[in-house]
Write the structure tokens for this entry.
Amino acid sequence: MRNVTTELAKRSETRKKSITRRLMACTMSAAMAASMTATYAFAYSNNTSITGADKIINLLLSITKYAGIGLAVFGAYELAMSFLQNQPEAKTKGIIMLIAGVIMFGAPTILQTIGIT
């Protein structure tokens, strides 16, 4: 019975790591898209805007916002689970994900407030 419990715990940990890696890859992709969008918007903010480019920028900013919500929720979950299991490394990872999610969620609003997009 003990081997079954140990095996299930290992599988659960493997799935958790796999989900975390996929989420981090999506987050990095969204962050790169947001940075490229911000760079493009800053470079062409004084010129006449292109309607198609504006639509793409708005789409990328909204994707960044929703990815930020997902990352913040997952970071909060990771933080809560790390407090329950008393894992310092998971606490750090959860805090970082939560902060990154909040920054990604607020980035489009800040860019629009500043006037870059």
Remarks:
- DSSP finds three helices and no strands in the chain.
